[in-house]
Design a protein that fits this description.
The protein has two domains: 244 residues, 3-Layer(bba) Sandwich (FAD/NAD(P)-binding domain); 222 residues, no CATH class. With 544 residues, the chain is of the alpha/beta class. The chain is globular, with a radius of gyration of 24 Å. The chain has 15 helices and 20 strands. Helices cover 30% and strands 17% of the residues. It binds flavin-adenine dinucleotide (FAD) and NADP nicotinamide-adenine-dinucleotide phosphate. The site of NADP nicotinamide-adenine-dinucleotide phosphate (NAP) has 27 residues, from helix 5. NADP nicotinamide-adenine-dinucleotide phosphate (NAP) binds next to helix 5.
Length: 544
């Protein structure tokens, strides 16, 4: 559908959707290009992930000193992280500080949702509709909507019948929740549940954890940061970040150099112990090159992790229920503080849903196959419609009125995770087909935003009307992303990377597994080759 030119209320150069790490930086770069731009954000302030996920225990699992922007010397000079892994309030304050420093809020419309975006081939512009009834016309649209921003609705019968208080971790009330004296149920043991459970347990009268799939979790070993350490990091920050940009995971740590079976059993054990002592998401995966590709190598690390769980959990039956069986890392590895030890508390009960599945949420609690558990509060830590959910929630129609939902019915297809064929001038930040979610996302976000800004700058400078991915280049990219994934263990787990957490969602492995550094080189080569795989349309011939 091409919307009527006449009813557009406002004409801009660019609309950015979302005011998290991606949208804020995008706005800064668009302003630098001198483009009239606005950001539309559902929430009533900046922050994205860190605005919404206010559940107890929420914090990053990438070192704070790396989980931040690098583009601004002023930000680096004026901000100091206080913990190895910053809490949600600290990261939110950081993003508020960024918004203040660059006076970003004047170009952001808060409490407003983008509901539709239609490409008008006549004029080569997008018509963007918002929940407040406005229609914006812009040449460029940047979807900075987040990979983990569309909360999964709990797919359990009876959810609406519960008479107590229920909360989704990704829509946590700003004023917090007091669980004192209450019987609380937490459903979900992914990264979110594993962070929240130890803190809810400290408050609740009794906590019931409803676990369907056990997960691996590495100790965070979180601690306050020594001021001198922070200064040392900052003194060589440019080099540190450059190493991260060229690395696989967007972090500055040296890559593994040996295969699992190239060292003796004793040496391997010592390396795993060392990783466990240092903690963090790569506590075990840092050590060996074949961790994600060789089943036997991964199994050795799995056995180590399961042994640690058995050591940490006193009750043998509870420990057995907590033992994961998938290949480590193929579902995102969790990072915790006191998670397994929490099951040693008298006021915590693990409900193993593989033994007694949930039948329904009831007015008074949860009925499993073997009992009814009375509850005052329910916490849904059930995750997200990841990587595509925030995009397909918007009615997006490109050339020939083709909707994005149609285009992605069999799984998301993109070129470089940045653009979609038939959707000219519509950019994705860390879209499916990019390494975003497998990396330190801020490093990936900066690279995407910079690529998009440079591309828009190029179009402007060259007097070009549109850029769009060619279907052939997109097909090749999708095949390449799949081939890379299929050479690893990743696709073997029923993960959100694969869409497996959402009933009915097409199962396609979405992230690019070959690392940030290689991906960056591919993006650079595409530009060097004159935007290889993209069609660039001169101003006079933008029409379909
Ligand atoms: P988001 O921060 O998700 O921002 C997207 C924004 O778009 C949201 O504010 C949303 O409201 C808005 N939006 C979406 N659709 C619309 C619409 N239709 N209209 C208007 N607004 C819309 N990554 C790491 O690298 N390290 C970590 O330690 C880490 N920890 C995480 C912890 C949690 C609890 C979660 C959920 C994710 C974590 N991530 C982590 C991933 C995290 O999402 C990214 O690091 C990063 O914050 C994403 O920024 P973003 O701006 O791309 O997206
Ligand atoms: P998640 O990893 O998808 O975990 C959701 C949990 O809910 C899983 O245990 C899942 O079980 C369970 N679940 C879902 N539906 C259920 C149902 N109907 N019945 C019972 N259980 C159900 O989601 P998440 O924990 O919110 O994490 C998502 C991602 O956000 C992470 O992988 C990570 O990238 C990011 N994150 C990072 C941090 C951090 O440490 N920095 C913290 C939070 C989130 P199954 O596995 O059986 O489906």
């Amino acid at each position: 559908m091409s919307a009527d030119n006449g009813d557009a209320t406002e004409v801009l150069d660019a609309v950015v959707v979302g005011a998290g790490f991606s949208g804020l930086y995008m706005l800064i770069r668009l302003r630098e290009l001198g483009l009239r731009s606005t950001v539309i954000e559902k929430g009533d302030d900046v922050g994205g992930t860190w605005y919404w996920n206010r559940y107890p225990g929420a914090r990053c699992d990438i070192d704070s000193v790396d989980y931040c922007y690098s583009f601004s010397p002023k930000l680096l000079e004026e901000w100091r992280w206080t913990e190895r892994f910053a809490t949600q309030p600290e990261i939110l304050s950081y993003l508020e500080f960024v918004a203040d420093t660059f006076d970003l809020r004047r170009d952001i419309r808060f409490s407003t949702t983008v509901t539709a975006a239609d490409f008008d081939a006549e004029s080569g512009t997008w018509l963007v509709r918002t929940s407040d009834g406005n229609l914006l016309r812009a040449r460029y649209v940047v979807m900075a909507v987040g990979n983990l921003s569309e909360p999964k609705r709990p797919d359990i019968p009876g959810v609406d019948t519960f008479a107590g208080d229920s909360f989704h971790t990704a829509q946590w009330p700003k004023e917090g929740v007091d669980f004192t004296g209450r019987r609380v149920g937490v459903i979900g043991t992914g990264s979110t549940g594993i962070q929240a459970i130890p803190l809810i347990a400290e408050q609740a009268e009794h906590l019931f954890v409803f676990q369907r799939t056990p997960n691996y979790s590495m100790p965070a070993r979180n601690a306050p940061l020594e001021p001198q350490y922070v200064e040392d990091v900052l003194a060589s920050f440019d080099e540190r970040r450059e190493v991260s940009r060229r690395s696989d995971a967007g972090t500055p740590f040296p890559p593994a150099s040996k295969g699992t079976f190239e060292v003796s059993d004793e040496e391997r054990e010592a390396m795993f112990e060392e990783g466990w002592r240092r903690g963090g998401i790569n506590a075990l995966s840092y050590a060996f090159t074949d961790f994600f590709t060789d089943v036997r190598a991964n199994e050795v690390a799995q056995e180590f992790a399961r042994r640690k769980i058995r050591e940490l959990v006193e009750d043998p039956q509870t420990a057995e229920s907590l033992l994961p069986s998938h290949h480590i890392g193929t579902k995102r590895t969790c990072v915790d503080t006191n998670y397994f030890a929490t099951y040693n508390r008298d006021n915590v009960t693990l409900v193993d849903l593989r033994r007694e599945p949930i039948e329904a949420v009831t007015e008074g609690g949860i009925r499993t196959a073997s009992r009814h558990i009375d509850l005052d509060c329910l916490v849904y830590a059930v995750g997200f419609d990841a990587m595509t959910g925030a995009m397909t929630a918007i009615d997006i129609a490109g050339r020939g009125d083709r909707t994005l939902r149609e285009a992605w019915a069999d799984g998301p297809a993109t070129y470089l995770g940045l653009m979609v064929a038939d959707f000219p001038n519509l950019f994705l930040v860390t879209g499916p087909g990019s390494p975003g979610v497998l990396s330190n996302m801020v490093v990936s976000i900066e690279q995407h935003v910079e690529w998009i800004a440079e591309t828009i700058g190029y179009l402007e400078a060259e007097g070009l009307a549109t850029i769009e991915a060619s279907p052939a280049a997109q097909d090749q990219w999708v095949a390449h992303v799949n081939d890379l994934a299929n050479a690893t263990l990743y696709p073997q787990a029923a993960s959100w990377y694969l869409g497996a957490n959402i009933p009915g969602k097409a199962r396609v492995f979405m992230p690019y597994v070959n690392g940030c550094g290689n991906y960056r080189s591919e993006c650079e080569a595409v530009v060097r080759d004159g935007y290889r795989g993209f069609a660039l349309t001169p101003a006079a011939s933008a029409r379909a």
